[in-house]
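R.M. (postdoc): so does anyone remember the format we settled on? I'll just put the structure tokens first.
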């Protein structure tokens, strides 16, 4: 029956709802697709009761609700999904950093030279910051799942703390790299270091996109 009727009212309501929503594109598309299926099922039910196509659409759309009524619940789901995506990316990148971080130095000609105490403290701080980010990301996953199940707003403080720690991690990591170059010019031509910098830069960009998505979903 769906292929035989006009669904203009249904599609218009979904476009209006979509315009109110911000968050992960795939999740947003899935939510709107689910809503479309529900609306079309309602239209089919009214058609089977004998209503004309236009009236069936009108009733289904009216029962579905207005975008202002529906947007908060959908946006909460998108915010939870955005925090979940950000947390998973942090866990992935932090794991790579913990496992492969020291490999950028092993075998280098300068690795036996003890760096200044300030450098050692900054290097240790980078590890502590990523450790904190890993813990916050794990909490973020738990919070996102609970928020999605309950249909409430995602705990913003977890995402805000995670975004703040990530910003600090990028700053300290960049400072550590700059200091490393200042101490050991050969680091610029050391292949493991070059690979590490490229991976770190790509990872920061990857995390930055996820953080931006989370900010838009919770704003």
């Amino acid at each position: 029956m769906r292929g035989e009727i006009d669904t203009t009212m249904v599609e218009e309501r979904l476009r209006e709802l979509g315009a109110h929503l911000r968050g992960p594109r795939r999740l947003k598309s899935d939510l709107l697709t689910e809503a479309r299926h529900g609306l079309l099922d309602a239209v089919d039910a009214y058609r089977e009761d004998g209503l004309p196509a236009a009236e069936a659409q009108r009733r289904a759309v009216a029962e579905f609700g207005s975008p202002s009524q529906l947007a908060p619940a959908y946006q909460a789901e998108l915010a939870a999904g955005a925090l979940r995506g950000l947390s998973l990316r942090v866990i992935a990148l932090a794991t790579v950093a913990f496992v492969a971080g020291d490999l950028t130095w092993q075998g280098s000609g300068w690795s036996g030279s003890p760096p200044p105490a300030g450098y050692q403290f900054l290097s240790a701080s980078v590890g502590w910051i990523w450790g904190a980010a890993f813990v916050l990301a794990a909490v973020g996953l738990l919070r996102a799942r609970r928020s999605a199940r309950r249909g409430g707003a995602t705990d913003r403080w977890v995402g805000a703390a995670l975004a703040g720690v990530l910003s600090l991690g990028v700053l300290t990591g960049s400072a550590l790299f700059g200091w490393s170059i200042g101490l050991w010019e050969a680091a610029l031509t050391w292949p493991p270091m070059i690979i590490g910098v490229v991976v770190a830069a790509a990872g920061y960009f990857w995390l930055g996109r996820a953080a931006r998505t989370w900010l838009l979903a919770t704003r």
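R.M.: ...and that's the designed sequence above, right after the tokens. Also worth knowing: The chain has two domains: 2-65, 82-218. The helical segments are 8-19, 25-48, 53-64, 67-100, 117-150, 156-183, 191-218.
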